[in-house]
Amino acid sequence: MLRRCFLRRCSLSILITSVITFIIFTACLYHYEYKSMVDAGWNLPSANDTRTPNPQYSFAARVKECCKGEQQEKGETQEVMEPLKMLGVIRDRKDKYIRDIGFKNHAFNALISNNIGPYREIPDTRHKICPREPTGPNEILPTISVIMCFYNEHKMTLIRSINSVIKRTPAHILKEIILVDDFSDLPELEFHLLSDLHAQLHYDRLQYIRNEKREGLIRSRIAGAHAAEGEVLVFLDSHIEVNQQWAEPLVRAVKQENSTIAVPVMDLISPDTFEYSSSPLVRGGFNWGLHYKWITLPKGTLKKDEDFKGPFKTPTMAGGLFAVNRQYFKYIGEYDEGMDIWGGENIEISFRVWQCHGSIKIYPCSRVGHIFRKRRPYSAPDGKDTMKRNSLRAAHVWMDDYKEYFLKETNSARDMDYGDISARVELRQRLKCHDFAWYMKNVYPEMQLPGQETKKTASAAGVYQPWHSRKRNYIATYMMRLTGTNLCASVVAPKVKGFLKKGSPIMLQTCMRTRNQIWYETDKAEIVLDKLLCLESYGDAQVHINKCHEMLGDQQWRHTRNEHSPIYNMAAGTCMRAKGALVGARIVLDLCSKDDASAWDIVKVEETS
């Protein structure tokens, strides 16, 4: 009996010990897993968070997962590309993943943006007539609140946008920077965003607002404006870089005339290469579908250097970048809160400001670089066409009988529900605004009604240069010969209407110095076959010829202009490579390396007259 009791007690002790050990082990394991998940960027809801957990890796964790176990050597690629000093070089699968996920989520090259880092110097693109002296101590300018709204923005691009404002704006006029996060759901923006911003920027006047649900650009900007304390509101997109002394011309303009909306010139930042380039002086118009378009300045506007200071009146503005007196913004009706997400708000506020006794002017001595993406990387939460619905609201409030032209242009909008516009109609009446006929006559007299054609329009059509006869500045002529062979990059393709077929692949053929092997390089780093079609990267790793679009990126190339050179595509981040050293072998894009299949001799060709 004693033995049985002893055995029972032992069994009970063992059981209790086992349970305690299991609990401790489970707790440790949970802590480890929890910490690992937080470090990796899992979206773990707090006690007050009722959102559905989003089991997505953070950006850093996804990159790590994509390339797990990879032992590829970077040194060779780095050595080959060192003479070209390219930021977008794909050195391994990890780089390729970052580039590809960047284009998917943001519609630009995130690899290059990461490599640029939180700040860079950019070219001063202002005209020589613009003053370079800093603001004098005796000049009193109003303070500004910079409002930057974003949804799922690339983090490094966002940081650089903010940093450019901090470093290139006089501290005594920069009251604050207000970030409005429109309920971003990318994991890298859900964890530690504020601490990352403060660590990178070291700026204590940064205010962060996060919407509790997706509101869209329009209502996000209103929220930012309500939180602002500066005398002037400056709205900026979240993928920009402001240039030298960008703020002063805008603030001076608003100070002198508080019913003026002051707009900078939008310089171009390539989404493929992040190359910063000057934009020509143009202004904003619209078509009868109420889409924004760029239009030329009136003839004779720029006769002497002094004219390049501006300002220039503009019928509409692109809407991403502008400065406005805070009180006037409230007086004029802010934005139409009945509009959803994005689209049409820039045309609506342009009509409203002009018709209600204000003005919109472009100030060329203020320059802000903007990434012009080729597509929007996100849509409305419910998939609705918010652009069309918002434009419909604008048309019904501001265009009077002219709205029929919009409805005919977008016939599907005629029966679309556009919500209650009574408050906006009452605003128009209260402000005693002009009718749309006044706007057409006094603000945008160049705008033609559908079906109208003037002699001026007809003659302008004759000035247009067809794609195959555009004038380009050619700086070199050569063949591209695979090193160690007598095989050259060639196009063998049928002709369509007298021209080689667009989309034809590049392959190796015996070097013959024929027209389908002679390439002309432009001062924009395009490589043009027979002065007609551009060498272009497309897809994941393909190379073909296509119509020259003059937007660079996938048609922009670099090489060392001598023997055994890589031929590098600026957008793809990879180099031309022959699939074999034989006639008919296709030429593709691959990681840049020193092997013979990726080395090319740039053989100069002397043109005969």
UniProtKB/TrEMBL annotation:
Membrane topology: Single-pass type II membrane protein
Single Gene Ontology BP annotation: protein O-linked glycosylation
Domain Ricin B lectin: 476-603
EC number, UniProt record: 2.4.1.-
First-tier enzyme category under EC: transferase
GO cellular component, one term: Golgi membrane
Cofactor(s) required, per the database record: Mn(2+)
Classification via InterPro entries: GalNAc-T (IPR045885), Glyco_trans_2-like (IPR001173), Nucleotide-diphossugar_trans (IPR029044), Ricin_B-like_lectins (IPR035992), Ricin_B_lectin (IPR000772)
Positions of transmembrane segments: 12-32
Cellular compartment(s): Golgi apparatus membrane
GO molecular function: carbohydrate binding; Notch binding; polypeptide N-acetylgalactosaminyltransferase activity
Pathway named in the protein's UniProt entry: Protein modification; protein glycosylation
Keyword annotations of the record: Disulfide bond, Glycoprotein, Glycosyltransferase, Golgi apparatus, Lectin, Manganese, Membrane, Signal-anchor, Transferase, Transmembrane, Transmembrane helix
Family: Belongs to the glycosyltransferase 2 family. GalNAc-T subfamily.
Protein's name in the database: Polypeptide N-acetylgalactosaminyltransferase
Species the sequence originates in: Ceratitis capitata
